[in-house]
Amino acid sequence: MGKISYLRLKGSQNFRLRLLLSTLSSTPILIEDIRADATWPGLLSHEVSLLRLLEKVSDDCHVEINETGSKLKYKPGIVMGGRNLVHDCGVSRSIGYFLEPLIVLGLFGKKPLTIRLKGFTNDSKDPSVDTFKSATLPMLKRFGVPPEGLELKIESRGVPPHGGGEIILSIPIVQDSLKAISWIDEGMVKRIRGISFSTRVSVQFENSMRHAARGILNHLLPDIYIFTDHKAGPQAGKSPGYGITLVAETTSGCFISADTAISYASGKEDGMIEDEENKELSPPEDVGEQIASTLLGEIEQGGVVDSTHQGLLFILCALCPQDVSKVRVGQLAPYGIEVLRHIRDFLGVKFVIKPDPSTRTVILKCVGCGLKNLSRKIS
Amino acid sequence: MAKEKKQEGNSEQPHKSHRSRKVGASAKKKSKSKPNSNDELSKEQKKLHNPKAFAFTSTVKAKRLQARATEKEQQRLHIPMMDRSTGEPAPFVVVVQGPPQVGKSLLIKCLVKHYTKHNLPEVRGPITIVSGKQRRLQFVECPNDINGMIDCAKFADLALLLIDGSYGFEMETFEFLNILQNHGFPKIMGVLTHLDKFKDVKKLKKTKQRLKHRFWTEIYDGAKLFYLSGLIHGKYTKREIHNLARFISVMKFPPLSWRVSHPYILVDRFEDITHPETVRMNSKCNRNVTLYGYLRGCNLKKGTKVHIAGVGDYRLDDITALADPCPLPSAAKKKGLRDKEKLFYAPMSGIGDLLYDKDAVYITIKDDFVQYSKDEVDASGTQRVKKRDHGVEMVKSLQNPEYLLDETTEKKISIFGRSEAASCSTDAPDSGNQREALEPAEQYGSGIQDEDGESEEDTHTEDGDRIESSDGEKILQKNLSMKTSDDSSDEENYFTSDHQPPAARNFKEQINFHDGRVRRKAIFENDMDIDHLKDSDDDEADDNDQGSSDTEIKSDKDEDASSHSDFSDEDEDHARDGDDMGNISKWKEFLVERTASRKNVNLMQLVYGKPVSESSNEKQDSSEKEESEDDEFFRPKGEGNKKSKEGIDDGNVDIEDCSKFIHYASEKDWRSEDLIESIRDRFVTGDWSKAALRGQVSEATSGDNGEDNDDVFGEFEDLETGQKYESNQTDRLGNVHKDDELTAEERRRKKLALRAKFDAQYDSSESPDEDNDGKSDTKFSHGQTDGSEYVDKLKEEIELRKQVNMAELNELDDTTRIEIEGYRAGTYLRLEVSSVPFEMVENFDPAHAILVGGLALGEENVGYMQVRLKRHRWHKKVLKTRDPIIVSMGWRRYQTVPIYAIEDRNGRYRMLKYTPEHMHCVAMFWGPLAPPHTGVVAVQNLSNNQATFRITATATVLEFNHAAKIMKKIKLVGYPTKVFKKTALIEGMFTSDLEVARFEGAAVRTVSKIRGQVKKAAKDEIGNKSIKKGGYAKEGIARCTFEDKIKMGDIVFLRAWTQVEVPCFYNPLTTALQPRDKTWQGMKTVAELRREHNLPVPVNKDSLYQHIERKAKKFNPLVIPKRLEEALPFSSKPKNITVRKQPREITAVVMEPRERKVHTLVQHLQLIRNEKMKKRNLKQEAKKKEREVERSKEEQISKKRQREERRGSLRKLGEITALQMSSWLLVLMSSYKSLAAN
């Protein structure tokens, strides 16, 4: 056993992405200068929590953090999966932050993964669990992930600052590898579904959000149904809040989503919305309108996925067998670009990126890295 | 035919057969009688063959038969595997294997001779030949050691197993077969040689039959075994070689799962490119080497790690695709190969005409081919000279003896292409010698300068020009080997001539030492660069019109946008410059930079950064990579402002990790009508036809790339939809017909897929070889004509996938294609590997092929491998746990220490001390990871001088793990120290109280099967003597309770499981780093060590089996006390029955008088008879004695007679000898006589 050669990286950016790709490609990484100059240097609590989660689902992974937390050594192990795992995601980021890497990792595990995650189910920064349920999981199915056992169950909701939400995620393993896709037909939006929820506030909030959202969307489509999900009691978590998730389904089976949640943000960090109106929470009507127009914006972009899911789509494409995958996305989001770069660094997969002028979309093509589920046991 | 003749010659002369009448009456008679007899026969047959006899008699049997038939059918089906290789495949590797002295090299030589008409002096390294119009072959001779065999099995596409027919099978063949089977099982063909040693035809026939059947049992019934009858003039017969070549040429090579998923290269050329100076300073320094070979398997990407078999894991420093040294002939319609196309390439064997390097081509001219034709200039006159081709001119000038100074020293000339180089090689010997040592350095110093791949023809024509111009002046030795003075480091080694014309100065010369052959290489520096520049200038000038306008538009737009990326700024500047200045020369100055910057305005490069910086990054640390990436952080226009808001900055590496891209700032009011209209068609409520058109149009345009994309990208961000709409419409109009084309394209693709599927099924549809008539094809095609539906569907899917892949990739240009999918399988590659141990170069042996195998993601990591292993049935012993074995898995070979185990019912892995005799077991060992289903071969001994079968076990990988969980049974033994009622204190079972605590609640048992439970560590109050009382508290005494009181003499057992550590040891086999004849010595087994040090096997006396003698137990009689007896009920009371010995019943018989009479009479008669018998016996005895006496007498007489006879015979002998002897014999006889008398 020789010396381990670490891939040296810098900064806290794209932390999840790096850990995910490092685990998948089993390259040890060494991240330096993690918020070295910040007032609070080192890893933040959600990042540490993510590392803990990785340790939980995988076997023999080594994590070394220096005293200030500004340097991290990570040697990936084998993703084991397993049942009855529980992870507390903490109160600095929502569950969505953890779900994004976890659903990819779970696919390449030894055993199917079933895990209970606790924390915020909805917030304004990360995609909500509703989005995962209605948009992300169908996307996975396109890549040949077996539909049975692919499930996300929301037990209770929780919003910042105190959380209290709980979900159960179960992900099957891929038997051999994913399937390369050619997914360039975004189709036409045939229906829009959504969920508006509220915790520890009046039902009225949901209804007004619904109403406002429909007000915009009804110009375009009659087939809109927004469910209300009013939680009360222990299911409502620990802090008041409300939010809405919209998913547009197209004729070709694409799911384009937009979501947000409003609550009293925790302490220093404040979401995008609070930028304009300081500390003033936006009223539900505005939220509904805003999210509806965000959804329309995403639809206008014209990719097969929304901008949030671009990164995940690229990762899945890169993990395919050595066939050509072809996808169409709208404007490349900054996160998507970062994903593309990291995919090149870790997996050695480069995408051919071609703008499609007539529809103002971008078509990406790649030959997958041929990752196989190696940790799977054969009988 | 020759064989038959021989057979006839050997057999006894056959009798001349009866010649039947051709004419006359008898002939007529016969012809008449024949049909009659036939009729009779047929009638008889008809009688015999009762049609009912073969009909079904039982439905059950019929059903069973049918089931069997379908089962057999299903057995033939395989799940189709996707072979992703496109383009022409790499040459198929034909490995010729066999025990020593069986004729391997001769076979290769004969085959090469058959294909190329060249005589191969010796077989070293792979030999590539073009065997047909669509097929190339690479012959490799398998070395005779097991390591070589393992490596060869990993790259063989076809294995020719040579078998000495006169001797029979040897272990090597079976070993190799076994290795092949476990590494994917490529095609196999047996070849019997040495058949001319048989004198008896019948025996030959029998042997063939026997060997064939043995071969079949090993592989499958009907496996091809080829017979080479014998040698003629030291070679195999032409006809047979021809037939063998045919067999090879029609062979199909199915994809093998390991190889399809891993790139690999069989190295056919190997060079050491270390700087000679460093080698001189330290001959044991790590070397840089280049490896050449065809890429096989799957595509190879840059940055892939490789494993060089027998050396270790390395990262490839550089990969270059070279021109194919042995290209397939053009696809012109003609039958057979022209002589010109019968190429072959074997750099290690020292032949082959051309050697390609990254930047040069070597031409080797053999000694016997160098024939200097007379210069015909004088005879034919000047007109002829003019007619002559440039090339001819060049050769003529070469052949001119004026220039050729020393033919004897340098016969092999390498030319880069220009005539000067050729003349250059006729350098004065002293300068040549000087340079020889230094040249690799030059090669690689200069390599950078001459990177441009200029086409050969161009240079040739230019050569000609120069030759003509310089015809008058003589190019002499002094203007040779010019190196421009800018190479200051090597300056002293070169002499520069000042008065040379510039054209002549610009080349250097190189000499290669390769296998003792001197080769020189000429490299040009400047002029080529200039040429290239000119070319590129022209190209750019062409492009410029469009380019400048594009960039201008671009820059305008950039100004609109709030942020400017660096390159767009540059771009703008250049554009301005170019347009403002009318001066062409100035305008030209910026061309190169401009085009470079123009290229950058490409989405791909925006994302991935400039290719130059990237390539430099690749070599350096990734930390630097990060930095450079940050410098050119992509900021899409229009998003720039948002980003700055979010805090995404060039320098900031600590941005928030968030996949959501929120742009509320750019929210539009979706209530407005025109906005709604703009996306109306994206909804089902909109115009369906428009929407459908939209998708297809975009598909059509997605195909073409180039400049229009660039300027479109400028518009791309622009959200002025009105304009956009119009442009879209124009697009649409133009693209309506494109739509039709697209669907047609789709249909065509599907058709192609179907056709390919059909071809796969009926492989004979396209004859792969040219010189084949249809017969052989139909003979050997074992196509699966009738597969099941499912398999058919899978095949179709795969073919469709392939077609899609091909179509998608074909529309990319070459460089991006290499970036995207890596180097394609089938290309000839040059790999550069640095810091290889010098032993590899030192001990390089071309007879041992170097295998470079690419490693997939995660395969360089180590962990616990879990394999399903079975001891080979021919290996004599079972394998012992922890005895090191050598494992071949994937590309690797390594020594490791396995632990054998077997899975229990409850999923626990129980350790085994030895492998089971005839069963699979699990073996777990530490080593580099390999994916599940990989085949494994285990060997214990590498030495060649071994008669036994060397393969000890075969296995397949089940899974790999980072933790090994193998349990072993453990029995803790304890003795009671104190027994209370049902509680006892047990001592000796545990060593500490902590240990007791660990086992609380565990079940224990005594020898007498009394069950119990461990409760707690005994307190010193109850069990131990307290410390106060002078004793010391003993640790590890456990309090246990039992179901009954136990005795002090009982032994208490606790049965438990303990985990066994798998040793973290693995040792890669570095066989390429030592002389090949030396056997690699790794870790030794304990038994070997004991044998070496003469140590006895330690014996545990208690473990010895002894014969147990048990005394028969003697029980005392049961004594019941009187009182008790009285109290007992009668049934339980001991009855007074005296035990008698054989109770006999004597009954008194009272006889009647008559009866008595009869009885007495009988008695009398008996008495009489007895008496008679007595007498008779006496008589007989007497007679016996008499007879004996007589017999002894007779015996004596016979003895005498025998003696007499012997004497007579001796006498006869004696008569031959001298008289003295006879007299002496007489004396002897007399003495005999006297003796006999006595």
Automatic annotation (TrEMBL), chain A:
<comment type="similarity">
    <text>Belongs to the RNA 3'-terminal cyclase family. Type 2 subfamily.</text>
</comment>
<dbReference type="GO" id="GO:0004521">
    <property type="term" value="F:RNA endonuclease activity"/>
</dbReference>
<feature type="domain" description="RNA 3'-terminal phosphate cyclase insert">
    <location>
        <begin position="185"/>
        <end position="300"/>
    </location>
</feature>
<dbReference type="InterPro" id="IPR020719">
    <property type="entry name" value="RNA3'_term_phos_cycl-like_CS"/>
</dbReference>
<dbReference type="InterPro" id="IPR016443">
    <property type="entry name" value="RNA3'_term_phos_cyc_type_2"/>
</dbReference>
<dbReference type="Pfam" id="PF01137">
    <property type="entry name" value="RTC"/>
</dbReference>
<protein>
    <recommendedName>
        <fullName>RNA 3'-terminal phosphate cyclase-like protein</fullName>
    </recommendedName>
</protein>
<dbReference type="GO" id="GO:0000479">
    <property type="term" value="P:endonucleolytic cleavage of tricistronic rRNA transcript (SSU-rRNA, 5.8S rRNA, LSU-rRNA)"/>
</dbReference>
<dbReference type="InterPro" id="IPR013792">
    <property type="entry name" value="RNA3'P_cycl/enolpyr_Trfase_a/b"/>
</dbReference>
<dbReference type="InterPro" id="IPR013791">
    <property type="entry name" value="RNA3'-term_phos_cycl_insert"/>
</dbReference>
<feature type="domain" description="RNA 3'-terminal phosphate cyclase">
    <location>
        <begin position="9"/>
        <end position="353"/>
    </location>
</feature>
<dbReference type="InterPro" id="IPR037136">
    <property type="entry name" value="RNA3'_phos_cyclase_dom_sf"/>
</dbReference>
<keyword id="KW-0690">Ribosome biogenesis</keyword>
<dbReference type="InterPro" id="IPR000228">
    <property type="entry name" value="RNA3'_term_phos_cyc"/>
</dbReference>
<keyword id="KW-0539">Nucleus</keyword>
<dbReference type="GO" id="GO:0005730">
    <property type="term" value="C:nucleolus"/>
</dbReference>
<dbReference type="Pfam" id="PF05189">
    <property type="entry name" value="RTC_insert"/>
</dbReference>
<dbReference type="InterPro" id="IPR036553">
    <property type="entry name" value="RPTC_insert"/>
</dbReference>
<dbReference type="InterPro" id="IPR023797">
    <property type="entry name" value="RNA3'_phos_cyclase_dom"/>
</dbReference>
UniProtKB/TrEMBL annotation, chain B:
<keyword id="KW-0690">Ribosome biogenesis</keyword>
<dbReference type="InterPro" id="IPR037875">
    <property type="entry name" value="Bms1_N"/>
</dbReference>
<keyword id="KW-0378">Hydrolase</keyword>
<dbReference type="GO" id="GO:0005525">
    <property type="term" value="F:GTP binding"/>
</dbReference>
<feature type="compositionally biased region" description="Basic and acidic residues">
    <location>
        <begin position="1178"/>
        <end position="1209"/>
    </location>
</feature>
<protein>
    <recommendedName>
        <fullName>Bms1-type G domain-containing protein</fullName>
    </recommendedName>
</protein>
<dbReference type="InterPro" id="IPR030387">
    <property type="entry name" value="G_Bms1/Tsr1_dom"/>
</dbReference>
<feature type="region of interest" description="Disordered">
    <location>
        <begin position="531"/>
        <end position="584"/>
    </location>
</feature>
<dbReference type="GO" id="GO:0003924">
    <property type="term" value="F:GTPase activity"/>
</dbReference>
<feature type="region of interest" description="Disordered">
    <location>
        <begin position="602"/>
        <end position="653"/>
    </location>
</feature>
<feature type="compositionally biased region" description="Acidic residues">
    <location>
        <begin position="705"/>
        <end position="720"/>
    </location>
</feature>
<dbReference type="GO" id="GO:0000462">
    <property type="term" value="P:maturation of SSU-rRNA from tricistronic rRNA transcript (SSU-rRNA, 5.8S rRNA, LSU-rRNA)"/>
</dbReference>
<dbReference type="InterPro" id="IPR039761">
    <property type="entry name" value="Bms1/Tsr1"/>
</dbReference>
<feature type="compositionally biased region" description="Basic and acidic residues">
    <location>
        <begin position="551"/>
        <end position="579"/>
    </location>
</feature>
<feature type="region of interest" description="Disordered">
    <location>
        <begin position="442"/>
        <end position="511"/>
    </location>
</feature>
<dbReference type="GO" id="GO:0005654">
    <property type="term" value="C:nucleoplasm"/>
</dbReference>
<feature type="region of interest" description="Disordered">
    <location>
        <begin position="1175"/>
        <end position="1209"/>
    </location>
</feature>
<feature type="compositionally biased region" description="Basic and acidic residues">
    <location>
        <begin position="616"/>
        <end position="625"/>
    </location>
</feature>
<dbReference type="GO" id="GO:0034511">
    <property type="term" value="F:U3 snoRNA binding"/>
</dbReference>
<feature type="compositionally biased region" description="Basic and acidic residues">
    <location>
        <begin position="633"/>
        <end position="648"/>
    </location>
</feature>
<dbReference type="GO" id="GO:0000479">
    <property type="term" value="P:endonucleolytic cleavage of tricistronic rRNA transcript (SSU-rRNA, 5.8S rRNA, LSU-rRNA)"/>
</dbReference>
<keyword id="KW-0539">Nucleus</keyword>
